[in-house]
Amino acid sequence: MRNSMKFPINLRKYTQFPPKRRVVVTGVGIVSPLGTGSELAWSNLLKGHCGIISLKDEEYSKLPSRVAAVIPIENDSEIKKALSKSNLRLMAPATCLALVATAEALTKANWNAKLDAEKEATGVALGMGMIDLKDVCDTSNALKLGYNKVSPFFVPRILPNMAAGHISIKYGFRGPNHAVSTACATGAHSIGDAFRFIRNGDADVMVCGGAESCISPLAIAGFCRLRALSTSFNDTPEKASRPFDKLRDGFVMGEGAAVVILEEYEHALRRNVKMYAEILGYGLSGDAAHITSPKEDGSGAILSMSRALRDSNIASSEISYINAHATSTPVGDVIEATAIRTLFKENYKNIMVSSTKGAHGHLLGAAGNLEAVFTILACYHGIVPPTINLDDPIDSLNYVANIPQKWNETRRVALKNSFGFGGTNATLCISSI
Questions:
Q1: Quick check: is 360 catalytic?
Q2: Residue 224: which H helix or E strand, with range?
Q3: What are the pLDDT digits (tens) for 59-79?
């Protein structure tokens, strides 16, 4: 017998998805070669300061690259305390730095979750690109002296998710606990994933970003063997990182941490808290081409940027600033510039493009999140940070050479690019509120 059940006439109401939740930035925190604290780092960036120094220790003396962007800790009691022997016995240096940046970001956001419901709605998404190779070498040497010389905290120190774990444990956050490790795209992927957690209703507040502290002779040597690092400016380290400049010859390793507090818009509105910017969208792609070099036609970057635009539901003509990944490598900078010109066509003439890596070096897994914070602050303050050491640009794009530029758009909308070894790409779309 034929089933005589009639289906509802209006199926649409049964298949509609709830509206996407808006996600805003309510807190930022920075530990970087430009200083500790978001105000200090931002101020130094706009002044054209550079945190890159020469590596004077004997163990670096025979390496081709002897420069790095190091956190200035001499007069910073907060960082000295964070990197105390007792802390380093339990945690990797990068985790210690992440906790400092998180404390600032939570203070800025005025988020002090006390109720169980608040803690359950607050998550962490924070990763790192590389483990501390020095810790591995030191532990290997300790094992040669005997099994009991190996620290019971060795494995927890080198796990990439432990920064997220320590933050969650310290503050009691029981929302999503997530760690990304996608090389130099780690920080941007962390923020993008956190954005989606909130947008999809998995959390109301997310602590997100990345941390990196792996400057050591072995790490420098490894990148030198890849011919990735700058080697021509050992005597003038402040000039070594020069994105989009014709004299660029490689990136400069950096260290630090940056943390962003993302929050569902209505949640932030009810708390009457300051909103720095809004995350509009997130795009990802893979080059599927080479383990270290981007695809020559820029198609991976184009896909990442175009998917971020589509996710944001905005037109390419609305973008007026791009915070570039540009690391100061001969190949990568040209490919990113090609991708920008290809995607934006004639509109590229109306877009400011800058890379802040000339000032703070390349923080690897903490690069995308530090630069995202600078992009957020650019949206908030209406000023675009400069690309320093840019004396002879590779082409005619507006690279905001050496001096900040006013950003006078009524609605300021930016893209933040991050690309990593293995061909992994991430783009965030960020706007003023």
A1: no
A2: helix 217-225
A3: 999 999 999 999 999 889 999
> The tokens 């383990």 sit on which residue?
291
SS3 339: helix
Query: Residue type at 64?
Result: P
Residues 6 or more apart in contact with residue 56 via CB below 8 angstroms: none
Q: Which of 166, 189, 325, 360 is catalytic?
A: 325
Instruction: For Cα atoms 418, 422, 423, give the angle at the middle one, nearest 5 degrees.
Output: 50
- Catalytic annotation, pick one of 184, 208, 214, 379: 184
Rounded CA separation 368/180 (Å):
12
Strands 23-32 and 122-127: unpaired
Concerning whether 362 is annotated as a catalytic residue, the answer is yes
Identity of the residue numbered 11: L
Amino acid at the residue 9: I
Q: What is the DSSP letter of 238?
A: G
Using alpha carbons only, how large is the chain's radius of gyration in Å? 22
Q: How far apart are the first and last CA of the chain?
A: 60
Measured distance CA(297)–CA(147) in Å, rounded? 52
Strands (E), 253-354: 256-264, 277-286, 321-323, 352-354
How confident is the model over 107-140, as pLDDT tens digits?
A: 999 999 999 999 999 999 999 999 999 999 999 9
The answer to whether 357 and 241 are in contact (CB under 8 A) is yes
Write phi, then psi, for 11 (nearest 5 degrees): -75, -20
Residue 71 tokens, joined: 């956190």
- Mean pLDDT, to the nearest integer, of 34-60? 98
DSSP state of 83: T
Residue among 50, 362, 379, 429 flagged as catalytic: 362
Residue among 104, 35, 97, 103 nearest 69 (CA): 35
**What gap in Å lies between CA 301 and CA 23, rounded to an integer?**
24
